[in-house]
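Session log. Operator J.P. requested a structure for one protein chain; no other inputs attached. Running the standard single-chain path with token output.
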Amino acid sequence: MKKLLTILVAVLMIFGLAACNNGGNSGNEGSNEGGETAATSIEKLTVMYVPSRPAEDIITATSGLGDIIIKEMGEKGFEIGAVEIAISEDYNACGEALSAGTADVGYVPGGTYVLYSDEINLLVTATRDNLVPDATDPNEWNVNPTTREEGVPVTYYKGLIYAAPTEKGKAVAAKVAAGEELTWEELDACTWVVGSVTSGAQYIYPNLWLKENYDKTLNDLSNKVNLKYPEAFQQAAAEQVDIITCYADGRMDYEGQWNGEWGRDDTIWNQLPVIGVTQNIYNDTVCLAKTGPNAEVLTNPEFMSAFADVLINLKNSEEGKTAIGIYSHTGYVLGNDKDYDVTRNALAAME
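Structure written below.
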């Protein structure tokens, strides 16, 4: 009888302890299929953007994003106390922040994702409206202003190489317009603007273009400066640089400032012609951190699936459209790491 009583007490203690443990974390955890508990709440979610658009524009466009995330993730069983919008100094800084866990979510270009793909999780890939023209001949980009083909989403874009309205810029543009081949010496005599080494349109793919056409790289150029997109276009308008590299709809983004704030007397379409076209660049990504204070939640497959759904559904509301429109995104699809093998190859060629 004494032995039986001892066993009963032990069993009751085990069940009581289990009940206390299950009840004590009910506000922060849920159950997964294996019966283990998984964290479901985040006090503050930091969403980081790269500075390919002016910081004030990003902050304005994403002002309603936090409320959408909090509301819709709450409906899916994940409690987020607050959403902070941050902007990195450059593309690499966003990758570093995700890698270190100081940012939870990052909007990063394909090149940045590839560089950090072992340290962060790919969630979705952006879609954009197809651009017209979608051509490999630079002169086709100079006939009419570029337009977007609404309702025709694509998961790639082209990088363009533009000639500024300087004496050297006009000289190389005139040769391209006449159907003549540019020489390396002519290009090397120009001052180029490039960007972060993980930027597809501002570094990786222009680098590949030089390699394919001249067996040279951006490192071989005698004169180059490193600037973000807004400063690159501003310096082109000020005739301080001869050639800039950018994504294919760059002139659309800075058309107003070209004639307004920067005081040019002719359109950006006439004064910033295309002289080179890169290969297709796979679109931007949204990635999640694997480390940091929120890693337990961010790496929860149920959280990842729910957050992907929220991002994919952003296009269905006006506030959501405004938020994703800052990078000309029209929506998102689930990301596939293999889609970025072309970018990996381009980085390998650059190295």
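Operator note: The first strand starts at residue 29 and ends at 31.
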